[in-house]
Amino acid sequence: MLPIKKIYVDSRFKTADSASDTDFKVDLPGTFLMPENTAMYITDVTIPASWNTVDEKKNNEIYYMIEQQLPQALNNPQHQTTQWVNVIAHIGQGSSNLVTLASAMQAALNNNNLTGVGQFAVTASLLTNRIMINNTSALHLYTDYELSHDPFFSTYAPFCSINKMIQNDTSYEPSTTFQTGYVKLYPNRNLYIVSPNLGKFDTMSVSGERKILKKVPVNAGYNEMIYDQTILANDFIDCSRQLLGRLEFQLKDLYGNVMNLNGNYWSFSLLFAKIPEQQ
């Protein structure tokens, strides 16, 4: 006989030593030893879609070089007229649509404290879902591959580039104009409920995560609520002979990053049953 049938988990009841609402621990009012052949299902999932489109720990930086005009003066003995300067632009974090993202990128790019370079003009095309960057000075946005092989930027790793969102993945010659790829304003297609102390670690994502309890499809827009009550008979976690007392959970994206819900709570249920016999 099972010592308990269902546990309702809510991040509002996290312990004081929890890292955040998406990386937390909960203490049960007692300890429960689960018998042999116990299956655990995750259901009643509710998650607010309140993460940032641009996040300072993930994708808020533009890495680029720009051609700078040098003053013609005696302190320029080589008589150079231009030089290339590497710059990191920091975009303010928040939730964006295509137009507000273009505006935020323009503000970040123009906040470079450089003389001898033109002003950036960043515009959004709602027809193509792309962003155009223009400047009178030639520029080049580094791809992630170029960043990883550039001696100057190597000290800034790990990178928080916006490249995945704007699909900047192909190298090009410097130009006064740059057009992004199709902008991915909804980068999170699925979320992953993870636990380091539940189950047999017999699940795996393509990123290498081995502690996944459940994949949750993002079926809601921003500032809406994600619901998932799906239960499949063979989609269970084996928790036979496990002692349940303090439980640990994380909510992650595909790349293993802990999600930031901006202080919002989320919840789900743990449903226990006998492991179904194979037909």
Description:
The chain has 279 residues and is mainly beta. The protein contains 3 helices and 14 strands. The chain has helices spanning 98-110, 144-148, 163-166; strands at residues 6-10, 23-33, 38-48, 61-69, 82-90, 121-125, 130-141, 175-179, 190-194, 212-217, 225-228, 237-238, 243-252, 267-274. The strands form 3 sheets. Strands 1, 3, 11, 12 and 14 form a 5-stranded antiparallel β-sheet that branches. Strands 4, 5, 6, 7 and 8 form a 5-stranded antiparallel β-sheet that branches. A 4-stranded antiparallel β-sheet has the order 2-13-9-10, with no helix packed on it. The longest helix is centred in the middle third of the chain and has 13 residues, at 98-110.
Considering the chains and any ligands shown, give keywords for the structure.
single chain, 279 residues, mainly beta, five-stranded antiparallel beta sheet, 14 strands, elongated
Short description:
The chain is mainly beta and 279 residues long. It has three helices and 14 strands. The protein is elongated, with a radius of gyration of 24 Å.
Tally of strands: 14
Helix content: under 10%
Give me the secondary-structure category: mainly beta
What shape does the CA trace take? elongated
**Which strand-content bin applies to the residues?**
35-45%
Number of helices, counting only DSSP H or I runs of 4 residues or more: 3
Radius of gyration: 24 Å
